[in-house]
Specification:
It is a single chain. The protein has 303 residues and is an alpha+beta fold. 27% of the residues lie in helices and 30% in strands. It is globular and about 55 Å long. The structure holds 4'-deoxy-4'-aminopyridoxal-5'-phosphate. The site of 4'-deoxy-4'-aminopyridoxal-5'-phosphate has 14 residues, from helix 5 and strand 14. 4'-deoxy-4'-aminopyridoxal-5'-phosphate (PMP) binds next to helix 5 and strand 14.
């Protein structure tokens, strides 16, 4: 089945959407992306796009920082995304990739005096971290300070930092790397936020601890508080706390909620999926598949 792409104002087959080698974003990383999931619900015979509006709002905020002019509201971008996903027609788990980029065919390091474009396409995509027992290692690469580059801006150029982390982890035999922030506190994985559970409490680095303000992170915090009555603390997290945690898991649109069983070769808890992680994971999957009426507002049906 062909994928479609919204490109330069029209929906066309993905394979026909092509850019020039002179495109500014290709040379200087001057683009913003989002990762959005469409989750297949077999019983409903439906794909639900998860938290579409929030993803588009995050992109609009990033656009302010990179001075990418997208002359459309978050809701309008969401509508285009919905149309492209519907047109692609996948009746399975889908990954949606919007990109806002400096499209001028121009060289020169800058953000000003450049044209911008927005594109979006959808492809079938299942698991990202292909494990339920993730083995992670603290990375030698650090997440940048907000004054180096704001980590909550999903700029393509910044993802070289994430790619260095991921490849280091894989080449060293782990599934994912955990980056510390500039002050040495725990920040996040190369494509996921991190949560610890200690004495029944959920602990996660705060927004100002050099992390991406994850939408899955917010989802899990909401479900933990509202459905399980758990205390959630957002604060600086020491590296030490990783090793003594009862449970740990990663969250991200691509990674979903992935339990961590080992950090720097220290086994966590009893080595399996912890009880609170298991409950949160079940709730999370029910929410994203559109099975929790209370959270139906998070799910946009495609068909
Ligand atoms: N941190 C980083 C560095 C990421 O790339 C991602 C994936 N977007 C996340 C956290 C998780 O964010 P979200 O839950 O919004 O996908």
């Amino acid at each position: 089945m062909p994928s479609y792409c919204y490109f330069e104002g029209q929906i066309i087959p993905l394979e026909d959407a092509k850019i020039s080698v002179m495109t500014h974003a290709l040379h200087y990383g001057t683009a913003l992306f989002e990762g959005i999931r469409g989750n297949w619900n077999e019983a409903h015979q439906q794909v639900y796009i998860f938290r579409l509006q929030e993803h588009m709002e995050r992109m609009k905020n990033g656009a302010k920082v990179l001075r990418i002019n997208i002359p459309k509201t978050a809701a309008e971008l969401g509508q285009i995304t919905l149309e492209v996903t519907k047109r692609s027609g996948f009746k399975e788990d889908t990954y949606i990739r919007p990109l806002a980029y400096k499209s001028s065919k121009a060289l020169g390091v800058r953000l000003h005096d450049l044209e911008s474009e927005f594109l979006v396409f959808a492809i079938p995509w299942g698991r990202y971290l292909d494990t339920d027992a993730c083995r992670v290692a603290v990375s030698t690469w650090r997440r940048p300070d907000d004054n180096v580059f704001p980590p909550s801006v999903k700029a393509t150029g910044l993802y070289i930092n994430n790619a260095l982390t991921k490849t280091e982890a894989i080449e060293n035999g782990f599934d994912e790397g955990i980056m510390l922030g500039p002050d040495g506190h725990v920040a996040e994985g190369s494509g996921e936020n991190i949560f610890l559970i200690q004495n029944g409490k959920l602990i996660t680095p705060a927004i100002y601890n050099s992390i991406l303000n994850g939408i899955t992170r917010d989802t899990v915090i909401t479900l933990a508080r509202q459905e399980l009555g758990l205390e959630v603390v957002e604060r600086p997290v020491d590296r030490y706390e990783l090793y003594v945690a009862d449970e740990c898991f990663l969250t991200g649109t691509a990674a979903h909620l992935t339990p961590v069983c080992e950090i720097d070769r220290h086994p966590l808890g009893n080595g399996g999926v912890g009880p609170i992680t298991a409950k949160l994971k079940d709730l999370y999957f029910e929410a994203i598949k559109g099975n929790l009426p209370k959270y139906a507002g998070w799910c946009t049906p495609v068909f």
